[in-house]
Amino acid sequence: MNAQKTPHLNKLRRTLVAAAILVLIAVSASDGLAQTPQLSLADLMIGLRSQKVPLEDRNRILAAAVAERGITFVYTEQIATELKATGASPELIEAIRAKSEEQLKPKPVPTPTPPDYTFYQRRAIENSAKGEYVVALADFDKAAEMKTDDPTIFIGRGRTHFNLKNFDRSVSDFNRVIELSPSDSSAYFNRASAFEKLGDLPKAILDFSKALELDPENSAARAGLARSVAALASNKPEEPKPVKTPDEPKKPDAVAEAKPQPVQPQPPVEVPRPRPEFISVGVLSNANAIRMSMPVYSQIARRSNIEGRVVVEVEVDEKGEVISAKAVSGHQMLRDSAEDAARKSRFRPFEFEGTPIKAKGMINYNFSLKGGE
Known about the structure:
TolA/TonB C-terminal domain, Serine Threonine Protein Phosphatase 5, Tetratricopeptide repeat, 12% strand
């Protein structure tokens, strides 16, 4: 009895498996499950042989599944002949052929977005800090090529040329900084240092003086000015001495020329401190502020995973109001927000010799995806 039932049960079991596979294919195709596995040749054969669904419906369901999920094999005429013999319709064969050609086409590789000038500038600063000046110079050149109006790039490249003893090239870069930012005291100081190395002491003196005018607290510029003045004075040629002719009569002892007296050293020249238009106050923080506004971290920047520091140069009037704000470093998508926050800030008035004066400084804003700005 059991022996007679076994073939019947096996046939029933195979039929149910085939029907289940066909139903799974149909459901996947109709629901658009893009993550379901691709169809193998065996899947198609089992689906075509199932007797639970009419052949016409089987072909329609399988063609839709092929178009939706793809196949694991490559179409050939031999496979097509085998499928036709199993009951595959022309529509199913065409769907398999089209999907095979589609899957064999090379997929386009997206071109990565090239880095902007801040990438090269940041890497140049890092290499310069390590003493890798030649490597840093190459990145400063690339940054300057991409961004021609950012003075921070040219002052960085000028210092790199200086460290490489390319003093003429460093002067050219500091000239560019002064063109872009005429009130930058550091540009005059750095150019003065390069002129001093080149032996052009008059120009060094002029630039050291200008740096002191813009930033009276610049002790390095004051020392450089005194050093250059002393060096220029020591390099002056001596006045020619009168030459006696052979037949000149000897002067009597009573009227003999007096011996030259030793020259007394002169006290150092005090450089006057004229009242500047601005004073440099360095980094501004809550300690200087009456109101320190914080920037808005835009949703676009957050979703793009953009973070980092933005440095904003500000000018403050005699009342402590911010009259200008310009971001000089940081990602472009963060700069506008940082500048807006800087303009809304207010500081305690700064003084020079007891009276209010305009000031220049920097505000650092740190944008972080972990803790806000």
